[in-house]
Design goal:
By secondary structure, the chain is of the alpha/beta class. 47% of the residues lie in helices and 12% in strands.
Length: 429
């Protein structure tokens, strides 16, 4: 079923606005256009950062910060380190759980040896064996690996969902069209009887209390995890009235966690979701995007999956198509950006800002974004340990555009170890 969905999406790329530039234009023109767009984005942002640009000129190109995954001062709502120390402690705490979901073999990337997935979980989090309520370390199509534990110290029941690690997880990622869903649908489906006919009837006729829409593959995964864990979670919370539910995940797991959190807004009041390296989950006019009161996402600087959806691909392909067809514009960009951005004069930088603004004004595909309240993390695993920051940003400006640059798919900026280490430094400080 997943393979059929992926095949349909690829076959229908043009219906989603994605242009196959490599089949329409000579390869040399496509490569030159990619180079031109990359240079233009870099020069325009450099100009925005270093020139005095009036508000009228700036208004149409706030996306420039997104193009380089760098929030501007206007996007930031302050340093979370100073304002919310309890949140920082929670983020550092739950990032360790998100890392554990990948198992001991993946944990070798952090330089630590834990023989066995359960042993890694116990050592990194301090959870005792008797407090591991459920552990499924192998994923299936639309059913990612996950575990359920009792955190006695914080009085939480924690559902943690793994991100992409297997080919089956990749199939889930590729089912990337939007699908509407009903909140608390699992309970109603169960009451109606779990048959294909009643499920289809429910989804076509039931009206949710909240408007909700999400990435199809993540949504199907959320449904599967919810179905397999809800009763156990309900039982545990019923027997421990002073406990709350926390749902945690990294990457694909973070997206699935956000969707389950939206499904269970009323089922488990007070549910909190912490997503690390969260990808683009859904549109801006529906949950889980609108669930800023219950979902907190941390996105690291340069993380390649924070601005990658069908809408982002459609806009990027349209920009490249425009440059492929307009050789004069393409050559002008290459000529005006032939020097390092630091060596460009004021007129060249302003020209780059105006040109990218004009190009961007034509790019209006519907995009998915990371959901909820999004915190933007800056810092490196190696180097100056003190230079780690965490600021709140607005998704639609910061993640509006896909940037073309040599490290645009650098997975080292996405791994869970990076999030765990940097958030641990912030929590410690």
């Amino acid at each position: 079923m997943a393979m059929k969905t992926v095949r349909q999406i690829i076959e229908n790329f043009p219906d989603h606005g994605v242009i196959d530039v490599f089949s329409l234009y000579p390869t040399k023109d496509v490569v030159a256009s990619i180079l031109a767009l990359s240079r233009l984005q870099r020069a325009a942002l450099y100009g925005m950062d270093n020139l005095m640009v009036d508000e009228h000129s700036r208004g149409g190109i706030d996306f420039l910060s997104a193009a380089l995954s760098l929030p501007t001062s206007s996007d930031s709502n302050g340093d979370i380190v100073e304002n919310e120390p309890d949140l920082l402690e929670d983020l550092a705490h739950y990032a360790a759980y998100a890392h554990c979901a990948y198992g001991w073999k993946f944990g070798l990337l952090s330089g630590r040896l834990h023989l066995g997935d359960t042993r890694m979980l116990r050592r990194k989090t301090g959870v005792k064996k008797e407090h591991i309520l459920r552990a499924n370390w192998k994923s299936k199509t639309h059913l990612p690996a996950h575990f359920l534990v009792q955190d006695v110290k914080k009085k939480k029941i924690i559902l943690c969902i793994r991100g992409t690690l297997s080919p089956k997880d990749l199939l889930t990622d590729l089912c990337c069209t939007a699908e509407e869903f009903a909140t608390h649908e699992e309970e109603v489906k169960e009451a109606m009887g779990e048959t294909s006919s009643t499920v289809d009837l429910f989804r076509s006729s039931f009206r949710s209390k909240y408007k909700a829409s999400a990435h199809h593959g993540m949504l199907e995964s959320a449904r599967s995890v919810a179905l397999s864990t809800r009763r156990l979670i309900a039982s545990e919370l019923a027997s421990k009235p002073d406990y709350d539910l926390v749902i945690v995940g990294h990457s694909l797991g973070g997206g699935v966690a956000a969707i389950i959190g939206s499904m269970w807004r009323d089922t488990f009041p007070g549910v909190r979701v912490y997503a690390f390296g969260c990808p683009c989950v859904g549109p801006t006019d529906a949950h889980p995007f609108e669930s800023s009161d219950s979902i907190t996402c941390v996105v690291g600087e340069g993380d390649p999956f924070s601005c990658l959806s069908l809408g982002h691909l459609a806009d990027a392909s349209l920009a490249l198509s425009t440059l492929c067809e307009d050789e004069t514009l393409r050559e002008a960009i290459l000529n005006n950006t032939s020097s390092d951005v630091e060596d460009l004069d004021e007129l060249q930088l302003k020209w780059c800002i105006d040109t990218l603004g004009t190009l961007e004004s034509k790019l209006n595909a519907e995009k998915f974004y990371p959901p909820g309240r999004v915190l933007y993390m800056k810092g490196n695993l190696f180097g100056d340990f003190d230079k780690v920051t965490l600021n709140e940003i607005q998704q639609e400006s910061t993640f509006r555009s896909l940037r073309f640059h040599p490290r645009m798919f650098d997975l080292s900026l996405h791994i869970p170890h990076r999030y765990e280490v940097l958030l641990s430094r912030l929590g410690t400080n």
